[in-house]
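**Archive record**
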Amino acid sequence: MAAAKSGGRLYPAIGLTWFMVALALGGSGRLTQLRPPAPQLVLLGLTAALIVAGATAPGFRHWLAGINLRQIVAFHIFRFVGIYFLVLYARGELPFAFAVPGGWGDIAVAAGALVLVLLVPNLGARRPWVLAWNILGLTDILYVVLTASRLALADPDSMQALLRLPLSLLPTFFVPLIIASHIYLLRRLRIEPASPSK
């Protein structure tokens, strides 16, 4: 019980510290000095660290198990950030190939998350719906990451908006969490029995 309470404070504190470091880095302007593939390697490293920790660290796994399906899905409502991609495309600050498909994809995933959270009282009993949404969301975020990487490698200046605040928080904080949460949700849906409380 003491370990669970300790983890309940520890992991949110680690997450907050990580967010503050990402915020400070974005605000410092140092990220804009990185050239491909350095930003892509940062994102990949953070994502891999989260996935490995979630699979191998007993304390972290135990803490994650206490997060219900609704909380995991609700986190993805944040992906209405896709609206901002469309705004930046209209301003000429992001290329069409990234901003428009990625923006509308994120908006669709966020809308799906909102529907699941608000209108489906028992997500645990609607696993096919959650699974379909999760696969769509994972496909979308992987498409966004791969497209951003391809465009940045071809023309680093075209993706500079992703290295400045507020969008610098995507590769340094939110996208690793988004990808890891999709992977974790796939595992939860596969191994957990249906539960009316989820």
Q: What stands out?
A: The first helix runs from residue 2 to 28. Residues 122 and 197 are 7 Å apart (CA to CA). Residues 37-55+70-191 form one domain. The helical segments are 2-28, 38-56, 58-65, 69-75, 82-90, 96-119, 127-154, 169-191.
